[in-house]
What does this fold into?
Amino acid sequence: MNYRVKKLLDKMSLEKIDTVFITDEKNLYYYSGFYKGEGYLVIGKDKLIVVTDTRYTEYASMICKGFEVKNIALVSPADFVSNGEVCGFEDQSISYKKYSELSGQIKNLVPLGNMTDSLREVKDEGEIEFIKKAAHITDMAFNYICSYIQEGVTEKQIAAEIDSFMKKNGADDIAFSTIAASGTRASLPHAIPTDEKVKKGDFIVLDYGCTVNGYCSDMTRTVAVGEVSDEKREIYGRVLEAQLMSLNALKEGVSGEYVDKVARDYLDKHYKNAFAHSLGHSVGLYIHEAPNLSPRNKTPLKENTVITVEPGVYLEGNTGVRIEDLTVVKKNGCEILSKSPKELIIL
Ligand SMILES: [Mn+2]
It folds into this structure.
């Protein structure tokens, strides 16, 4: 039995849950190795089952060590549960359709909250290796895109170049829709690339990442085109300073709230309320995972949490800057996985 399943069984026994149904696609992969498959897992003491359809049964038998594989057409969830058992379901992600099927068959059904997700918060060595590979491809793409960007290319063209570069260089896929926001649109933290052409004096916010073996990377850099005004240079310097200060504060045992506050207090002094989102989020099989670096996270951070540090300043109708690194929380600091330069680059 793999150590992830073992840890889950320990948690289940503490909560007095006999059997869990895992329906979340990423948790399916995390606990059984079943990548991009459809179906569900049944996990209990002496009970490790992958239920899937005939497109995947042979694959699942090869990949999911220690699991029995059942054909979804021939079984129903109730077949795996004996009378009186307490069963858990993933209430935070299950579809209403799947929930209806489960609850129609199983009496003692309880919501698991974040039990199955929370085990993914701390990454193991193998997971960190995949994330490092993804971060490396992301860095290579930054180097490439700096040679591509010039006056007259569009945001959409820039985004397409980044995406195809990453796929040609070993990424399985992009981790989320690439952001390339130029001109006044740089003030939109999650801008969608348009046909707008890059102009002299623009800032361009580039926020993108890729996946390797299902694990995501995430990085943001802001570059200037042609020339940069004193105002823009100053904003850039402040965001970089806030980012370096918060990277310095990040380590095991401090809270997400604390690290967020380091950047927020500094930026608020210079640009009141212009840092409009939280400082960072964990990254793993999902691009946004818990825990976060945010005013709402008062829990001490654990070693080997993979988390972003991404302060920004957004001035509506004017411009915006964000600088984001992907990091691993360590005992006495953090390891920065994003290696792309952070001094202001003028292309
Ligand atoms: Mn991010």
User: Anything to note?
Assistant: The CA atoms of residues 32 and 64 lie 5 Å apart. The chain has a mean pLDDT of 97.
